[in-house]
Amino acid sequence: MSNYNGKWKGVIDSILTLPLVLPPTVAGFGILLLIGKRGPIGQFSSLFGVNIIFSWYAAVIAAIVVAFPLMYKTTMGAFEQIDTNIISAARTLGASEWKVFWQVVVPLARPGIAAATALSFARCLGEFGATLMVAGSIPGKTETIPIAIYFATQGGQMDVAMIWVAIIFAISLTVLVINNYWNSYKKKGRYGVGG
Amino acid sequence: MDFFVDIKKKLYEFELDVKLDSKRDVIGILGASGSGKSMLLRCIAGLVKPDEGQIIVNGKIYFDAEKKINLPIRDRKIGFLFQNYALFPNMTVSENIAFGLDELSKEDKKYKVAELMEKYNLDGLEKRYPTQISGGQQQRVALARAVAVKPDILLLDEPFSALDVHLRNHMMREMAESLKDFQGMTLFVTHNRDEAYQLCENIAVFNAGKVEAFGEKNELFQRPFSRETAKITGCKNIAKSIRLSENVVEVPEWGIKLRLNMKIEPEEGYLGIRANHIKVVADCAKENCFKVWIADETDGPFRTSLYLKFGSRPQKLDDFHFQCEMSREERNEIKDPSEPICVYLNPNHLFFMKK
Questions:
Q1: Chain A closest CA to B192's CA: distance in Å?
Q2: One-letter-per-residue 3-state SS of A159-183
Q3: What residues does the ABC transporter domain cover (chain B) (predicted)?
Q4: Fewest C-beta atoms under 10 Å: which of A47, B61, B96, B139?
């Protein structure tokens, strides 16, 4: 995608980024149309006796759709920042496109990919609107932490809500710390000021 | 080793239209920034596809628009030395050099890398990353990495422009040494005439996407046959002139007549002389000696440039006809710069250009 410069680039880019700017309920509505009992994907899966809607599959799909633009944008940014001469150099040295991608592009974009993963993870973890629309809130089955917090608070169970809040805090903080630590470690080794 | 390029490629400001045919080993490509010389290298490497034409290196067709051949970069056997070296920052020095050596067995690879590390004076840096070594070392790694794959043609894109002057001279001598050992052919792109002169026997002068002149370096520097060539090779004094007799021209702009030591053809053309070939003399009696006034002067650390005018006293600082360059000592012999001095334009150094 980062090498593609055709006339459709803007269109493809916009479609892939759309869920980022849409309200989550709109994204959820769209997913509902696709995977609901009457939706094309929902009908297709029911042929195999699988029901997607209001199952944990739906929660996963909602999280992926909503977090995908973050992953896509940030990773793309990381790819585009790579010095094109470096990629050209790899090609002139006889490397196949496969080798160029895995040995040069991915390692150089790694900090960006890591950041993208962390961001998307955080977005997934906090997903509320779309998930509620397509997966509902079935305790023990499709109830995600943010939804649990919402209903606990609504029901006046502040202590339960507090526990979930603490857990979210712990997970988010851990991910950020690992991400920062990993990036600064990498920098020290290779990307530091030199020469 | 033979090399044939005849390509066209439309660019923003001009069309790259290059024809070069050579059996020589090292060719310098000299041109101002943006004259399309780097684009030529990119076309040969396959990083950019020409619109039409042919590229053949060592009997191998890299590109042929008519036969619809466009060899992928990885099959071209080229070594490309980028201006910024383009080392892989995620790999150590030895991993960088070994990158193109996948066909070799593990032992052979190790041996080959060790050999190159020694040859390019990189011992002890095996485990370092590119950002942990100096600019000169980075360049040696880049060169070692490029020649490791035994390319048919080595493409050097302004390799010294990122180095400071002191290191540049040092690296240039090293490069000359390495190029002697290199079996294939080399194209050396630069905008610096000193570099081109020092490293290459044959130079192609580039201007607006076209080869303005191609030939042996001394010929090119001493008797450029076009104004563009003269300018790019560093000639500062060029003026329109008209033939009077077989060896004498009139320069209307300067209001003088000059004797040359070459045959003047055609009737109208341009006269050139390098700033450092103009000598200050005691009296103006001899042929090709003229009385001139000093309009302005600029000082370099060791040399001084004088801006001179024929015929009458200059009115402004930029009211001058030509410039002349001399050492500080020579300049200090001129006692009173407000008075006219005499200069000698040696017929051996004057040249006449057709266009």
A1: 22
A2: HHHHHHHHHHHHHHHHHHHHHHHHH
A3: 2-233
A4: A47
Fold of A9-191: MetI-like fold (1.10.3720)
- What is the C-alpha to C-alpha distance for residues A87 and A85, in angstroms, rounded to an integer? 5
Strand partners for B351:
B272
- Name which of B39, B41, B48, B74 to mutate to probe chain A: the one with the most chain A Cβ atoms within 10 A of its Cβ: B74
- Residue B30 CA to residue B189 CA, distance in Å, equals 6
User: Any idea of the CA torsion for A137, A142, A143, A146, to the nearest 10 degrees?
Assistant: -100
| Continuous segment of H or E residues that includes residue A67 | helix A56-80
Domain total of chain B: 2
Residue labelled with tokens 């977090």: A67
ipTM over 0.90: no
Q: How many CA atoms lie within 13 A of A185 on its CB side?
A: 8
Q: Which residues are CB-contacts of A91 (< 8 A; sequence separation ≥ 6)?
A: A100, B46, B47, B73, B74
Q: Are B41 and B159 in contact (CB under 8 A)?
A: no
Q: What are phi and psi of B4, to 5 degrees?
A: -140, 125
**Are residues B76 and B20 part of one domain?**
yes
Instruction: Give the model confidence (pLDDT) of B301-319 as tens digits.
Output: 888 888 888 888 888 888 8
Q: What is the C-alpha to C-alpha distance for residues A190 and B129, in angstroms, rounded to an integer?
A: 6
Structure tokens belonging to residue B46: 């396959």
pLDDT tens figures, B170-199: 888 888 888 888 878 899 999 988 888 888
